């Protein structure tokens, strides 16, 4: 087995992290992931473009947050490292910026740890974002981030893998309550709202494929996505379709809503 494959990895089930790596053109995925990803691409040929567009939003959001003076980031559901990682974007703008990556998937964490060797301002931790206390009380996270100062919390294409039964809104509120005033929250989240019926049908077929993976895909309404920002002041232009959020490049049309909020 390749050295980057941790022993805890489950090779029998596709992983949303490794499928996303495949969509982005990465090489940290297995046949089981590629097979599921290829079925999705048949239904929704725009998936790779959507994944790239999501990374583009993440880049824009991190740059925006750096412009607001945010120099420490908690990236929840951070994924397998790829081109333009959060610490690279942030440390390019603020060399002293600190980034704690959190993901539940062992390949994502192992590869992040390997990539971050020698970077004393970025860490990767294996934890479940549905358990805010475990994340917030993690010694590694607390050694790196100072929660008495503003933090940028990133939840990019991650909350749509948390079903309502796991209370994602309560989890986000718990992170919010732990943050200092001036902290920011950035979210991107898949949706089926406002798209033609045939696309809705395809979206539901894509959701059905994700039922076979390590996380369900839950596509929420704009209203439900906006509720994640309760207790934050949502910055201009609000919760909007992903390509409409402070665009700086031509991104694929993607039915995901995104936003950034500031804790007053
Ligand atoms: C589509 S990827 C997004 C990666 C990155 N945030 C981005 O936007 O490019 C979703 C990531 O969320 C992670 N994830 C899903 N559920 C999670 C959970 N409960 N706790 C932590 N990470 C989770 C997956 O393992 C995967 O790496």
Number of helices: 10
Q: What is the class in the CATH system?
A: Alpha Beta
Counting helices, strands and paired strands, the structural category is: alpha/beta
Mean pLDDT: 94
Number of strands: 8
Instruction: Kindly provide the radius of gyration, computed on alpha-carbon positions and rounded to a whole number of angstroms.
Output: 17 Å
C-alpha geometry: globular
CATH homology superfamily name:
Vaccinia Virus protein VP39
The CATH architecture is 3-Layer(aba) Sandwich
Mind summarizing the main beta sheet? 8 strands, mixed
Q: What separation lies between the terminal Cα atoms?
A: 49 Å
Strand content: 5-15%
Bound molecules: S-adenosylmethionine
Helical percentage: 25-40%
Order of helices and strands: HHHEHEHEHHEHEHHEEE
Question: Would you give the CATH topology?
Answer: Rossmann fold
- Count of spatially separate domains: 1
Q: Which consecutive residue ranges, at least 5 long each, have pLDDT under 50?
A: none
């Amino acid at each position: 087995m390749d050295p980057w494959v941790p022993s805890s990895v489950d090779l029998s089930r596709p992983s949303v992290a490794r499928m996303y790596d495949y969509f982005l053109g990465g090489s940290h995925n297995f046949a089981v992931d590629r097979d599921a990803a290829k079925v999705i691409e048949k239904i929704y040929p725009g998936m790779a473009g959507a994944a790239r567009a999501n990374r583009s939003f993440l880049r824009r959001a991190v740059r925006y947050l750096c412009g607001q003076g945010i120099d420490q980031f908690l990236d929840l559901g951070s994924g397998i490292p790829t081109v333009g990682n959060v610490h690279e974007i942030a440390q390019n703008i603020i060399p002293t910026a600190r980034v704690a990556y959190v993901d539940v998937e062992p390949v994502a964490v192992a590869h992040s740890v390997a990539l971050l060797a020698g970077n004393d301002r970025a860490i990767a931790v294996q934890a479940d974002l549905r358990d805010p206390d475990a994340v917030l009380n993690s010694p590694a996270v607390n050694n790196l981030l100072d929660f008495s100062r503003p933090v940028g919390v990133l939840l990019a294409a991650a909350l749509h893998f948390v079903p309502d039964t796991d209370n994602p809104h309560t989890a986000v509120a718990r992170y919010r309550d732990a943050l200092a005033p001036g902290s920011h929250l950035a979210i991107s989240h898949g949706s089926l709202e406002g798209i033609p019926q045939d696309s809705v049908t395809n979206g539901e077929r894509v959701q059905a494929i994700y039922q076979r993976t390590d996380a369900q895909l839950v596509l929420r309404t704009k209203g439900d996505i906006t509720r994640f920002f309760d207790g934050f002041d949502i910055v201009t232009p609000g919760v909007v379709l992903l390509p409409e959020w402070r665009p700086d490049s031509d991104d694929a049309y993607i039915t995901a809503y995104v936003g950034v909020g500031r804790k007053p």
